[in-house]
Design brief:
Blueprint: H1 6-30, E1 40-42, H2 44-51, E2 75-77, H3 92-124
Helix pairs in contact: 1-3
């Protein structure tokens, strides 16, 4: 028997991913002056592909095959650009904007999770405050 709905487990997973994203961005900012350092990013598409498990079957051999993504990486290194002469590709303005965006996203997730728990608390108390 499940006590909590899937939405709480899903929120928990997305909060973990957002936290990882914050750590990756903070690491990029900390290494802004490190020679040869390549910025890293969290690939949310790969995370979603790994989390969504669908049983898919081809009903016709002419249909496109379904490809699994178990071997994909969540954290990827950006190697296609170099902003500084020392081989470092961290753009501090871009990283600070990503950090602010991730923080807003994280706070929204925490607010939503708090709302779920407050609803449970109200139900447990029988609607009394």
């Amino acid at each position: 028997m499940k006590i909590f709905s899937n939405s709480i487990a899903n929120l928990e997973q997305v909060i973990r991913i957002s936290s990882l994203n914050g750590k990756v961005i903070a690491n990029n900012i900390a290494n802004v002056d490190t020679p040869g350092y390549k910025a890293k990013t969290v690939n949310f598409k790969n995370v979603l592909d790994q989390q969504i498990k669908l049983d898919a079957y081809r009903t016709n051999p002419r249909h496109l095959p379904f490809v699994g993504s178990e071997s994909t990486s969540i954290v990827e290194t950006r190697t296609n650009s170099a902003y500084q002469h020392n081989g470092n590709n961290v753009d501090i303005d871009q990283e600070m904007a990503k950090l602010a965006e991730n923080q807003i996203f994280y706070n929204a997730l925490i607010d939503r999770l708090n709302g779920k728990f407050n609803s449970l608390k109200t139900v447990i108390k029988g609607g009394r405050t």
